[in-house]
Amino acid sequence: MQQQTLPLTGVEPHRTADARSDHLLVAEMVQRGSKVLDVGCGDGELLQLLESRGIDGRGIELSRAGVNRCVAKGLAVVQGDADTDLVNYPDDAFDYVILSQTLQATRQPKVVLENLLRIGRRAIVSFPNFGFWRMRLQLLVGGHMPRTENLPATWYDTPNIHFCTIKDFVQLCDEINVKMERAVALDLYGRPLRLNLPWWFWNMFGEQGVFLLSRGGEGK
Amino acid sequence: MTNVQSISSPSIHHEDRAHEADHPTSQVVTFSVDQPLKLDCGIDLAPFQIAYQTYGELNADKSNAILVCHALTGDQHVNNVHPVTSKQGWWDTMVGPGKPLDTNLYFIICSNVIGGCMGSTGPASTNPATGKLWGLDFPIITIPDMVRAQTMLIDRLGIDTLFCVVGGSMGGMQALQWTAAYPKRVFSTLAIACSTRHSAQNIAFHELGRQAVMADPDWRGGRYFDHDTHPHRGLGVARMAAHITYLSDAALHRKFGRRMQDRELPTFSFDADFQVESYLRYQGSSFVERFDANSYLYLTRAMDYFDIAADHGGVLAKAFTGIQTRFCVVSFTSDWLFPTSESRALVHALNASSARVSFAEIETDRGHDAFLLDVPEFFDISRAFLQSAGKARGLKETGG
Prior knowledge:
- The structure holds 2 protein chains of 2 kinds.
- Chain A is α/β, with parallel strands linked by helices.
- Chain A has helices spanning 21-29, 45-52, 64-71, 82-85, 109-119, 133-142, 166-175, 199-205, and strands at 15-16, 19-20, 35-39, 56-61, 76-79, 94-100, 120-128, 178-186, 208-215.
- In chain A, the strands form 2 sheets. In chain A, strands 5-4-3-6-7-9-8 form a 7-stranded mixed β-sheet, sandwiched between helices.
- Chain A is globular and about 45 Å long.
- Chain B has helices at 13-22, 143-156, 170-181, 200-215, 232-246, 249-255, 275-290, 293-305, 340-352, 376-393; strands at 27-31, 37-38, 44-45, 48-55, 65-69, 95-96, 101-102, 107-111, 126-127, 132-133, 164-168, 188-192, 326-332, 356-362.
- By secondary structure, chain B is of the alpha/beta class.
- An 8-stranded mixed β-sheet of chain B has the order 1-4-8-5-11-12-13-14, sandwiched between helices. Chain B has a two-stranded antiparallel ribbon with strand order 2-3. A two-stranded parallel sheet of chain B has the order 6-7.
- In chain B, a hairpin with a 4-residue loop joins strand 9 (126-127) and strand 10.
- Chain B is globular.
């Protein structure tokens, strides 16, 4: 059964060379020379990748240990909370604001998303897809809350309080008039699914979704 | 009768200290009557002098100079034997070969602040107009005045842009003032355990200290030197009170608890039965040997007046609009004198200006004084910040 897919603690997300595949995908969406804010930047791995590509990167991270590790790498990272501290940033302060694997851990994902696109002209959001077939299977067959390599926490100690599926996220973007410039679903190994597949397929077989977003037009 | 011991009188150091005020063992730059220091109170201070120390070597394009700004009771003796106390400099953990402020890589400058008593003009210096010590005739000075004087020193050294301005506590205030007032002359700023304004609680503690000094009959209206006295009791009490604010409850508990000093039972007197009492008395006594009482009044006052936002229409972010300087802000969890919330307010203002800022809060129980102590995480962060800024500045990574 699916028991063997249960938390493989210590299993790292798929990597190509030195960088995580979802980070590489995000980095590829960012234009060289631009100014980027990474919200929930963790240990600063993505920021380092961006800086190595000539991008002016800044970060916010909730955990003090994470922040200090980032600063000790020479990164411009401050301690802060996506839910409460984004309001301190002015409109259009960044070319891109990145929310990598963090949306599901915010208290108010909708407000956070709106703030991302106020501060940044574009936003890049990646999140684990709760509609992924293994998630569905664990709930359907196993009868317990799903856990995967990338989301090993149990229901009672998880920081992830607002899971969504790719379909849910697309609906939210429609609702708050956000334009999807690019959408990519990655499979369990971090490989992009083929582009011409229908949404339901992505929603079933995408382990995570990565979206490049911009502000929608007036009066949609 | 109970046995009462007060703070001991200053030893011979006191005269060494008095001599240092006019004739420091440090290097000195002097500014003549036609190069006055324009003070915020409206007075032109001239002539005046600045005493300073340097460590390391200035590179050919003068791009590796770091200005260290000292705290309230610090001085320019960062990393050499102190001429009065004969102790090693106050920041030898941070500054030196291979240290975060690496003297193999950077040219480190530290000057005694205006109003200080270790060789830069202040109340303990001789007023050239009268031939007597300034005392309370010395004009009130501010943090911006201290920084203005430093710009004159930096000009004299032929340095246009400082690679970094570094400081903790009052030194951090100077670093922030430098950056707000002369943003183009500051490539990066490392502001530690400080604030953009002095809080009501901090002003209150300073007032307590000043009143202790002025309540000492030996203060003599600030002219103790004319009477061959020194308000060492008042200044000692001020230092004891201030020293408590530099520590934390947890640190005091860890270091001393309720342990007795060289005895097992209480003496039923006002003698220093507890280790913590003995420690504070020692802090008070050793401080009065190296510091001038009037100088303490002036420098605490300068900190009280500090409020960067007030100088910019009450909006802190306006002080840093369009700033290109790279910032690193550091606070300590147990610092209740300059708590993390103060640093966070600064960081929010810098975010609003889209400045490049790093902000780390370091977990320690050592209180405000942590910035002077051996805290490896703090050193790692400072080192990495300077290395990253050095890369952006095009500095060589190896010494020479």
